[in-house]
Amino acid sequence: MSGADVGIPEVDPLQEKSGFVRLMERFAQLRHVTWFLVRVGRHIDPVLMRFTGGRVNLTATKTVLVLHHRGAKTGKARQTPLIYFTQGRDVILMASSGGAPHHPAWLHNVRAHPDVELWVGKRGGAYRAHVADAEERAALWLTARVFYSGFDRYQEFAGDREIPIVVCSPRG
Q1: Within a 10 A sphere around the Cβ of 160, how many other Cβ atoms?
Q2: Which helix (H) or strand (E) is 158 found in, with range?
Q3: How many other β-carbons are positioned within 10 Å of the β-carbon of residue 84?
Q4: Sequence-separated (6 or more) residues with CB below 8 Å from residue 148
Q5: Cα(40)–Cα(94) distance, rounded to whole angstroms?
Q6: Ramachandran region of residue 50, left (φ > 0), alpha (ψ -120 to 50) or beta?
Q7: What confidence tens digit (pLDDT) does each residue in 21-54 have?
Q8: At CB < 8 A and 24+ separation, what contacts does 69-77 make?
Q9: Which residues partner with 9 through β-bridges?
């Protein structure tokens, strides 16, 4: 059984990337582009992905999903586009916030309400999220760095803040 069994397309973090994808990754690591994707893109991507069935997003890659979660304090429904990769049945999310000095709001929400939904276009399902412990994080961080070289740069930007890794396992 794989992540695709509940609807999320599998993303092999070690798969070789095309020249275009490598170029887009380098572009996304520019400070002003990262700022735009984190601050503005998060509002555009859910609509764009819903309209195109998940085929189009601002990063121009196939590795973006929409995390559906509830606000930690308000309980209001929230949507956050995030790049992801899969490890077996699990979907891996990085709480990098583009290297901001503070954790992203979605991380606080997921800690408070770990039952989430993950969607890529019309494919998705129910997951339970947890923040990786130190041992699990160490192994996943190595894979994440191969998957997207920008995570090293984001960790530099984040300074003393260690970027958390969230593991989402299928429910049911």
Answers
A1: 5
A2: helix 150-158
A3: 23
A4: 25, 83, 94
A5: 18
A6: alpha
A7: 666 666 666 676 666 666 666 666 666 666 666 6
A8: 69/106, 69/109, 69/110, 69/113, 69/116, 70/109, 70/112, 70/113, 71/109, 72/108, 72/109, 72/111, 72/112, 72/113, 75/113
A9: none
Distance between CA atoms of 55 and 99, rounded to whole angstroms? 26
- Per CATH, which fold does 3-170 belong to? Pnp Oxidase; Chain A (2.30.110)
Sign of CA dihedral 87, 139, 149, 44: positive
Name the token pair of 156: 């530099």
Compute the CA torsion angle 119, 155, 143, 72 (nearest 10 deg).
Answer: -30
Quote the CA–CA distance of 54 and 48 in Å, as a whole number.
Answer: 8
- What backbone torsions phi and psi does residue 65 show, to the nearest 5 degrees? -125, 170
Look up residue 59 and give its DSSP letter: T
CA distance 76 to 153: 32
Q: Give the tens place of pLDDT for each residue, 64-111.
A: 888 999 999 999 999 998 889 999 999 999 999 888 899 999 999 999
How many degrees, rounded to 5, is the angle at CA 89 between CA 146 and CA 150? Answer: 20
